# Entry
Amino acid sequence: MFSRFIQHLKQQLATDLPGNRSHRRMIFEDRRPRYNAPATAMQAGVMILLYPKDSGIHLIYIKRKAIEGDVHKGQISFPGGKYEIDDFSLKHTAIRETYEEIGVSVPETNIIGALTSLYIPVSNFAVHPFVGFVDEVPDFRLEVAELDDILEVELDYIQDPAIIMTKDIPVHPDLVLRNVPYFDLEGHTLWGATAMMTAEFLDLLRLG
# Structure
């Protein structure tokens, strides 16, 4: 079942991506997705990592530490990070960062495609999401200096429309974002750019 799912998803990733249509569903008030990053934008690669577990399919999120000065502190995101000069490509960035953050080595041949890149103005990053897989439950190793937790989420769970909700989210003592759409991951709030990427990924599955 898992191998058939991966082959089907690979075919879907080779088609026209839903992109902005999906992203728009998870945008809070006054936020619009930007695809044309400025020349000054930094580049990042992230990984949507899939694997079989308990007769289902799971994917991974990470919870970042609440480090002062980090504009994304404490947020839920995909494994990944900044492009480095020694990286061969943004795909390699996603592979390298996934290993460094959660201890999972993903062969390049297991990267089956990419979703729509997304510019994040608040941190000036153009983020490029890649979809990859491993054939068994990984032996996770958490990068404790940067991360608080690893969240294993079953695909059937995150496809449930009932877990998409809205709430006000404080991001600064003087700033509260109103009516922010988010995925409720069993009490964890998945919002912002990672929620937008997740929405595109789920829409791609529905289109198939």
